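queue> pop job 88
queue> type: inverse folding (structure -> sequence)
queue> payload:
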């Protein structure tokens, strides 16, 4: 079975299990086919946790984390890896104590049911996103901008 050809410029670590190659990329540029995506570590776990806590009043359920994931993916260069993002959230004590803790498969199942989330966040409104989704998206971006200035 052949997979994607990936070109990495920068520092990385790869791990093989004879079927898959797992890349850990830090401050590098990754090119898959014609797609170019910058992966970086500028989104710290502390910043993510603080900012999620600031916007939780806009949450309607655990599926709200899918909105957070998509914003981090599209606007802040977070790797397109839902499972890794869920694990990071599940390891944040303050989020586990919240009204809507993130559980495994929460983001994946939300995105299966809301296919517009696979599109860039700027295209959501045109693709039928609910008002609450757009509100959370916008408030999270605002909160991130405020957190980054501190």
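queue> result:
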């Amino acid at each position: 079975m052949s997979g994607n050809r990936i070109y990495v410029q920068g520092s990385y670590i790869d791990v093989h299990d004879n079927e898959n190659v797992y890349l850990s990329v830090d401050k590098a540029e990754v090119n898959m086919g014609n797609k170019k995506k910058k992966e970086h570590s500028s989104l710290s776990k502390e910043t993510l946790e603080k900012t999620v806590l600031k916007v939780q009043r806009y949450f309607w359920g655990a599926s709200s984390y899918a909105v957070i994931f998509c914003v981090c993916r599209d606007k802040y260069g977070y790797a397109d890896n839902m499972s890794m993002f869920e694990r990071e959230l599940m390891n944040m004590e303050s989020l586990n104590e919240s009204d809507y803790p993130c559980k495994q498969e929460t983001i994946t199942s939300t995105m299966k049911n809301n296919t517009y989330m696979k599109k860039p966040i700027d295209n959501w409104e045109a693709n039928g996103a609910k008002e609450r989704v757009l509100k959370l998206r916008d408030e999270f971006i605002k909160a991130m901008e405020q957190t980054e200035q501190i």
